[in-house]
Every structure is written in C-alpha cells, then in structure tokens.
C-alpha cells in the first residue's frame, strides 16, 4: 500500500516539477503539484 499525494496521485515530497520541451526545443518547467497532500495529514486547508 503506497501513499500517494491526494492532489496528483503521485508519490513525492515538496514541489513536483516536470520538464517538457516546446516546439522550439526549449525546456519548460511545469509545476505538476505545488504541495503534496496526504490522507495522513489532518490538515483541512480547503481553499
Ligand atoms: Zn502531488
């Protein structure tokens, strides 16, 4: 049973960033998930 982030469904710590390349072959950083959120955390920070 793996614990995954409730926001993005991936396992990560801190900010999750993926690098893609656009049409000009320039790397673009995409922030997939700003903050990981796990069930175990009793925080209810609903915006
Ligand atoms: Zn996440």
Question: What attributes characterize this protein structure?
Answer:
47 residues; mainly beta; 2 strands; 0% helix; 28% strand; binds zinc ion
Task: Categorize the overall geometry.
Answer: elongated
DSSP helix fraction = under 10%
Report how far the terminal alpha carbons are from each other. 29 Å
Name the ligand types. Answer: zinc ion
- Number of alpha- plus pi-helical segments: 0
Q: Total domains, how many?
A: 1
Report the average pLDDT across residues.
Answer: 86
Number of strands: 2
Descriptive report:
The protein has 47 residues and is mostly beta strands. It has one domain. Helix content is 0%, strand content 28%. The chain is built from no helices and 2 strands. The protein has a two-stranded antiparallel sheet with strand order 1-2. Strand 1 and strand 2 form a beta hairpin. It binds zinc ion. Zinc ion is lined by residues 5, 7-8, 10, 12, 16, 33, 36.
Task: Please specify the SSE layout and strand pairing.
Blueprint: E1 16-21, E2 27-33
Antiparallel strand pairs: 1-2
Bound molecules: zinc ion.
Zinc ion (ZN) is lined by residues 5, 7-8, 10, 12, 16, 33, 36.
């Amino acid at each position: 049973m793996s614990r995954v982030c409730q926001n993005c469904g991936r396992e990560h710590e801190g900010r999750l960033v993926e690098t893609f390349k656009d049409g000009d072959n320039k790397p673009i950083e995409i922030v997939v998930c700003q903050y990981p959120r796990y069930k175990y955390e009793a925080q209810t920070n609903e915006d």
